[in-house]
């Protein structure tokens, strides 16, 4: 079983210039060592962040391609149940905590599996705390 649920915000902070710090580095070292689990929307989330950064001239297309290649080497498992839970559990969590559907997918996965959640998203962190989901400290 992987060691944590990894939210897209951690990868975004790591890849976008000037947004990573020692805590992010420690989380990524933990992922490298123990693996991570992500919901089915994770790859789309990561791609969207990188494409948006590229359009805003924060990174180049070469940075995007390189970043995706590096991420592709990490031991990250994609949850097969995310889509099946979208209209029930994920929708309920999104409405209850006023989260996006994507953010609620990370919360649902961490809650269902009992794995700690690594995220920088403050709304998601607050919802996780209220739901009793352990949060990863860097």
Look at the structure and name the CATH superfamily: 5'-nuclease
**CA-based gyration radius:** 14 Å
Structural class per helix/strand content? mainly alpha
What is the overall number of helices? Answer: 7
Q: What is the helical fraction, as a range of percent?
A: 55-70%
* Low-confidence blocks of residues: none
CATH architecture: 3-Layer(aba) Sandwich
The N- and C-terminal alpha carbons lie at a distance of: 20 Å
Task: Walk me through the structure.
The chain has 138 residues and is mainly alpha-helical. It has one domain (5-131): Rossmann fold (3-Layer(aba) Sandwich), CATH 3.40.50.1010. The protein is 59% helix and 7% strand. It has 7 helices and 4 strands, in the order βααβααβααβα. It has helices at 8-15, 22-34, 42-55, 61-72, 86-97, 101-113, 122-131, and strands at 5-6, 36-38, 76-78, 117-118. Strands 1-4 form a two-stranded parallel sheet. Helix 1 (8-15) crosses helix 2 and helix 1 runs parallel beside helix 3 (42-55). The longest helix has 14 residues, at 42-55. The protein is globular. The mean pLDDT is 93.
Name the features:
mainly alpha; 138 residues; 7% strand; two-stranded parallel sheet; Rossmann fold
In short:
The protein is mostly helical and 138 residues long.
Question: How would you summarize the topology of this molecule?
Answer:
Blueprint: E1 5-6, H1 8-15, H2 22-34, E2 36-38, H3 42-55, H4 61-72, E3 76-78, H5 86-97, H6 101-113, E4 117-118, H7 122-131
Parallel strand pairs: 1-4, 2-3
């Amino acid at each position: 079983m992987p060691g944590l649920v990894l939210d897209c915000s951690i990868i975004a902070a790591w890849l976008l210039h000037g947004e990573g710090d020692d805590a992010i580095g420690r989380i990524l070292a933990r992922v490298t060592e123990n693996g991570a689990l992500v919901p089915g929307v994770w790859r789309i989330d990561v791609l969207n962040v990188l494409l948006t950064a590229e359009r805003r001239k924060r990174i180049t297309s070469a940075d995007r391609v390189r970043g995706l290649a590096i991420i592709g080497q990490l031991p990250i498992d994609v949850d097969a149940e995310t889509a099946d839970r979208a209209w029930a559990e994920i929708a309920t969590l999104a409405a209850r905590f006023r989260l996006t559907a994507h953010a609620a997918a990370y919360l649902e996965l961490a809650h269902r599996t009992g794995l700690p959640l690594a995220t920088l998203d403050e709304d998601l962190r607050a919802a996780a705390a209220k739901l009793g989901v352990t949060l990863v400290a860097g």
